[in-house]
Design brief:
Blueprint: H1 3-10, E1 14-20, E2 27-33, E3 46-50, H2 52-66, E4 79-85, H3 93-108, H4 124-142, E5 151-155, H5 157-168, E6 176-179, H6 184-189, E7 207-212, H7 225-233, H8 236-250, E8 256-261, H9 270-281
Parallel strand pairs: 3-4, 3-5, 5-6, 6-7, 7-8
Antiparallel strand pairs: 1-2, 2-4
Helix pairs in contact: 2-9, 3-5
C-alpha cells in the first residue's frame, strides 16, 4: 500500500502494532500518533518516546497544545512513536505493571564494563539494536516518517538508556532528552567505570538533561524513611547535573543543556519536561 494513501487515512490518528524482537526476546507495543497535517516532503519528523505505555498521552497532548502556537495556526508536523510493551495494557493492572517493571529494567540498563550486572539487567545494547535496526524498517513500511535521526526521550531508567544511546549511537538520533536519568544504577553497579568516561562524536545532536528539585531530599510527609534514604543516596540531581557538566566540558561541539525544575518530584517533573521537549522540537510553521 502506498505511503500517501496511508497518510491521508491516518493523519491525526493514533494507531498501534506489536513487533517481536529476536534480539531482546520481548514483544513491543508501538503506538504512533500522527499529526493533523499532511506529511512534509521526506516524511514527518519523529520523537521516539521510551515507556510508551505510560507517556504517549502526555507527549501527544503536549504536541497538540504547544505545537499549535495560536488558534489560527497550523498544528505541529511532529509524529510521536511510543515504544512500550505488548500485553501491558490488559485489565490486570498490577500484574501488567510488574511485567513492565521487569522488562524495562532489562532493556534500559546498559551492559557493564566490569563485574556482573544484577540478574535481569544489562540488556541496553540489545534494546538499542532493536530501536536502530529492527524498528525503523517496520515503521517505514507503515507510515510516512523521516527516520534518519529521530529525537529520543526517556525518563528515569529510560533517561539512563537515552544517555547510553547518546554515547553508543550518537549518529542514530537527533536530540536526546534524558529526564531524571537513573545514573545511580551505573554508580552502584559499574564502579570501575564511574564517573563515566564520556566519548564525543562530531555526529552527536543536542542533549537536554533535567531533574526535579525535590528528587534528592527526604519527603517527610510521605513517612517512608527507607525511600528517603535512597532518595538522598541515589543523588538524582547531582548525578544528572554532573553528567551534563562533564559532557558539555568534554564535548564543546555538542549543545548540552541542564535544567532543574524546582518543586517537582520524580513523577511530576515529566509535566514541565514534556513542554520543554516540544519547545525544542516543534518547528515554526
Amino acid at each position: 500500500m502506498s505511503h500517501m494513501g496511508d497518510a491521508r487515512v491516518l493523519q491525526g490518528t493514533t494507531t498501534a502494532f506489536t513487533q517481536h524482537s529476536s534480539t531482546t526476546g520481548h514483544d513491543y507495543l508501538i503506538q504512533v500518533a500522527l499529526p493533523q497535517v499532511a506529511p512534509p516532503e521526506g516524511g514527518y519528523p519523529v520523537l521516539l518516546v521510551m515507556d510508551g505505555n505510560r507517556h504517549l498521552d502526555l507527549f501527544t497532548a503536549a504536541r497538540d497544545i504547544l505545537g499549535r502556537r495560536g488558534f489560527d495556526k497550523a498544528p505541529s508536523d511532529l509524529a510521536i512513536v511510543a515504544v512500550g510493551y505488548a500485553g501491558a495494557t490488559d485489565g490486570q493492572a498490577k500484574a501488567a505493571r510488574h511485567i513492565v517493571t521487569k522488562l524495562r529494567f532489562k532493556d534500559f540498563t546498559p551492559p557493564l564494563t566490569t563485574g556482573t550486572a544484577p540478574e535481569g539487567t544489562g540488556g541496553g545494547e540489545d534494546f538499542l539494536a532493536y530501536l536502530t535496526q529492527a524498528l525503523p524498517p517496520e515503521l517505514a513500511s507503515r507510515y510516512p516518517l523521516d527516520l534518519a535521526r529521530p529525537a529520543l526521550v526517556g525518563h528515569s531508567l529510560g533517561g539512563l538508556f537515552a544517555l547510553h544511546a547518546q554515547q553508543q549511537a550518537p549518529e542514530a538520533f537527533g536530540a536526546i532528552f534524558a529526564i531524571s536519568p537513573s545514573l545511580w544504577w551505573r554508580q552502584e553497579n559499574d564502579q570501575a567505570n564511574w564517573p563515566l568516561r564520556l566519548a564525543c562524536s562530531e555526529a552527536a545532536g543536542p542533549v537536554y538533561i533535567a531533574a526535579g528539585g525535590r528528587e534528592q531530599s527526604p519527603q517527610p510527609q510521605r513517612n517512608d524513611p527507607e525511600r528517603d534514604r535512597l532518595r538522598v543516596q541515589r543523588a538524582m540531581i547531582d548525578n544528572a547535573h554532573e553528567h551534563a557538566r562533564q559532557l558539555g566540558e568534554r564535548c564543546p561541539q555538542i549543545e548540552v543543556q541542564w535544567k532543574l525544575y524546582e518543586g517537582e518530584d520524580h513523577g511530576s517533573v515529566m509535566w514541565p519536561a514534556a513542554r520543554a521537549v516540544m519547545e525544542r522540537l516543534v518547528r515554526p510553521r
